[in-house]
Amino acid sequence: MENSPSIDVYGADWCGDCIRAKAALNKFNAAFTWHNIESEEGAEQKAIDISGQKHIPVVTFSDGSFMVEPTATQIKEKLEELGQINL
């Protein structure tokens, strides 16, 4: 279980901010689990429960923190803080 991603991304395939967040995580070689709120049972409610709002993407990190609609720079800074960036 050590190799399982500690980052979860809740969003939708049509969402531009979601596409950008996934692209940033991929750019920095950060493993993550994608949760499509339109096809995964309970994913939309889980995202709302985490963030308290209906905005996507919701990105959760290994330290228990989360970001809503983060920029690539915010994702990079968080990965650096967590020591999870792999360039």
UniProtKB/TrEMBL annotation:
Pfam families: Glutaredoxin (PF00462). Residues 9-61 form the Glutaredoxin domain. Gene3D superfamilies: Glutaredoxin (3.40.30.10). PROSITE patterns: GLUTAREDOXIN_2. This is Glutaredoxin. It comes from Gardnerella vaginalis (strain ATCC 14019 / 317).
